[in-house]
Every structure is written in C-alpha cells, then in structure tokens.
C-alpha cells in the first residue's frame, strides 16, 4: 500500500526548468536565502504555519549549513519534493522530524511537526483529532517495541503499512500543488 502513488499534480520538466530560470533571475549571486525563498513563494509573515513549513524545508536542504541554498541544493530540493519517489520522500520526512539527529523520533519531535502539518491540512481535510491524539495514534501504530521512540525502520515500515500513518508522516501537504500554485506568482 502507498507504493503506487499517483502523481497527477506532478510538475513536468518544462515547469521545473521555469523554476530553475526563476532561481537564476531572482538569485544572481547563486545562493538563495530563507527570506528570498519566502518572498519567491509568497509566504506571508502573518501565516505562521506556512512560515514554519518553509523554514523546516529550507533547513533540511541546506546541507552545508551555511544558511543559503546554492543551485545544487535548490535543484535537489525541487527534484525530491516534486518528482521524488515515496521512499526518498519518507527518508526526507524522517530527517526533518529528527531535529536532534539521533536517528530516533521522540514524542516531542513528532508532536512539533504534527502541529504544523495539522494547521496546514486543517484547511483542506477533515481531521477529527487533536495534534496530541494524532501523535498518540502514530506512536501506538508505529512504535513496535514500545520504547517511546520511533526508529527509522519503524518509521518506514509503519508509513508503508498504514495509509493514514503515511499521510500524517510523509510531510506531503500537497507540496507539488503548493509549488505549482506559487509558480504563477514567480513568473
């Protein structure tokens, strides 16, 4: 379940090339800073959820931790978010959840991101649970050894076995649709 995922909203190569051209136009220095990314995608400072999401995404792709995305980091980000397979997107999601980098997710790490996702998805889906209830259910379904932490293996297996868990864990708040929607603002 979940492996055969639909990519109806997937961007085509021409749209990705447009985004790359925009990068070169908007960032002639060859680097993209967080405030520029927010401006390009039209993320208003008043929208806390979108701001937290874009900051989390930005920092996850800033592989050399210089607080800027170079063209290669930017391209890798676009490829993963817009064209990456399920397994690669789940690996990326785990990396984002694992704030302390210890290879395991504790309840606070999961709860923090669930709260962001919850607020974003609340506008588009009917979620009948609080973020705490979502976190508790994820741990109940995924933490197989009941040690209060989710290992990478538990994360991958849990997400691929249960569609609800996958939808909550993969950090896919329709990233392709969001980028395509904001692509219009950039051109």
Summed up:
The chain has 187 residues and is mainly alpha-helical. It contains 10 helices and 4 strands.
Key terms for this structure?
187 residues, mainly alpha, two-stranded antiparallel ribbon, 10 helices, elongated
Task: Provide structural commentary.
- By secondary structure, the chain is mostly helical.
- It contains ten helices and four strands, in the order αβααβααβααβααα.
- α6 crosses α7.
- The radius of gyration is 17 Å and the shape is elongated.
Separation, N- and C-terminal Cα atoms: 38 Å
What is the helix fraction of residues, given as a range? 55-70%
- Name the overall outline: elongated
Assess the beta-strand content as a share of residues. 5-15%
The helix/strand series, from N terminus to C terminus, equals: HEHHEHHEHHEHHH
Low-confidence stretches: 1-9, 183-187
- Tally the beta strands: 4
Computed structural class: mainly alpha
Radius of gyration using CA atoms only = 17 Å
Query: Please, what is the average pLDDT?
Result: 78
Number of helices: 10
Enumerate the strands of the largest sheet in spatial order, edge to edge or round the barrel: 1-2
Largest sheet: 2 strands, antiparallel
Helix and strand topology:
Layout: H1 13-26, E1 31-32, H2 34-40, H3 48-61, E2 69-70, H4 71-83, H5 86-97, E3 104-106, H6 107-121, H7 131-142, E4 149-151, H8 152-161, H9 163-169, H10 175-186
Antiparallel strand pairs: 1-2, 3-4
Helix pairs in contact: 1-4, 3-6, 5-8, 6-7, 8-9
């Amino acid at each position: 379940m979940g492996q055969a995922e639909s990519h109806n909203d997937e961007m085509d190569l021409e749209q990705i090339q447009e985004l790359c051209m925009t990068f070169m136009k908007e960032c002639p220095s060859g680097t993209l800073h967080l405030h520029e990314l927010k401006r390009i995608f039209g993320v208003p400072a008043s929208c806390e959820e979108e701001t937290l999401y874009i900051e989390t995404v930005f920092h996850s792709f800033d592989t050399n931790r210089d607080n800027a995305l170079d063209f290669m980091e930017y391209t890798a980000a676009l490829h993963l978010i817009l064209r990456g397979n399920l397994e690669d997107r789940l690996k990326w999601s785990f990396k984002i959840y694992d704030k302390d980098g210890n290879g395991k997710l504790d309840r606070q790490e999961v709860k923090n991101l669930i709260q962001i996702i919850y607020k974003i998805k609340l506008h588009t889906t009917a979620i009948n649970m609080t973020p705490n209830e979502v976190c508790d259910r994820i741990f109940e379904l995924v933490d197989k050894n009941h040690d209060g932490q989710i290992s990478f293996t538990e994360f991958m297996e849990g997400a691929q076995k249960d569609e609800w868990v996958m939808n909550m864990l993969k950090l896919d708040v329709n990233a392709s649709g969001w980028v395509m929607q904001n692509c219009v603002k950039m051109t």
